[in-house]
Specification:
With 244 residues, the protein is an alpha/beta fold. It has one domain: Rossmann fold, CATH 3.40.50.300. It is 31% helix and 26% strand.
Length: 244
């Protein structure tokens, strides 16, 4: 059994029987509005609070938007600015990550040529032990060739493992409904897969649920559990089950 670190999200740590295996690269998948970015931010914030520096890379939002949304969602996280000032929590938003997306010499495709190198450089300079990449869905849009996309994904995972980093990498799924979900091939590149679902028809109140689909090197709960985005963080409603 691998050594584990606590994510800081109490319900997840209980579902994983103690936390995430260290140096694991976790894919966090879900539809719009399920709270993927907030979940990933809390993972870094809780790590920074216990002296584990973290870096947040976003290809979709400006750093100010990420920080402000986290403050609004989690008003109890009163020391976000302090952790940022101390470089325990580094947020690289769209303004900083956009240069990684470049057209090739023929102008027909986009590449992420410098992305992995820059991620490695910043992670090393901050001595980060936790990292978030939000989200790889943009990579899939720009890298149309499946083999190339898979190759870039594998290179990214290999670098993060070599650096000894535990990461959460978010992605959008085509449907947030569990019954209609099709697993993508890239899901299996990563050490863990957590999926955030939403259900509820037109005019109905949406229900958010979460499932740990896989976690290499660790037993985990097989339950699909409700959760909410509360002022104190992501809160799961766990059911009692016998551990294996």
């Amino acid at each position: 059994m691998k050594e584990k670190i606590e994510s800081g999200i109490e319900g997840i740590d209980k579902m994983l029987y103690g936390g995430i295996p260290v140096r694991s690269q976790i894919m966090l998948a879900g539809g719009p509005g399920t709270g993927k970015t907030l979940f990933a931010f809390e993972f870094l914030y809780k790590g920074a609070k216990i002296g584990e520096p973290g870096v947040f890379f976003s290809f979709e939002e400006e750093s100010s938007s990420i920080i402000n949304n986290a403050k609004k969602a989690f008003p109890s996280f009163t020391d976000i600015d302090k952790l940022i000032d101390e470089k325990k929590l580094v947020v690289q938003g769209l303004g900083e990550t956009k240069p990684y997306i470049q057209k090739d010499t023929e102008g027909s495709q986009y590449t992420f040529g410098r992305m992995i190198t820059e991620i490695e450089s910043i992670a090393e300079s901050t001595q980060a032990t936790r990292l978030v990449l939000d989200s790889v869905s943009l990579m899939r849009l720009f890298i149309r060739e499946p083999f190339e996309y898979r190759s870039v994904s594998m290179d990214l995972v290999a670098v993060l493992r070599r650096l000894g980093i535990t990461s959460i990498i978010t992605t959008e799924i085509e449907t947030p409904e569990k019954s209609r979900l099709l697993f993508q091939p890239e899901f299996f590149i990563y050490d863990g897969l957590i999926i955030m679902y939403t259900s509820g028809g037109p005019g109905e109140l949406s229900t958010l649920t979460l499932e740990v689909v896989k976690m290499r090197g660790s037993n985990h709960s097989r339950a699909t559990v409700p959760y909410e985005i509360s002022p104190n963080g992501i809160e799961l409603t766990l059911i009692h089950e016998n551990r294996p």
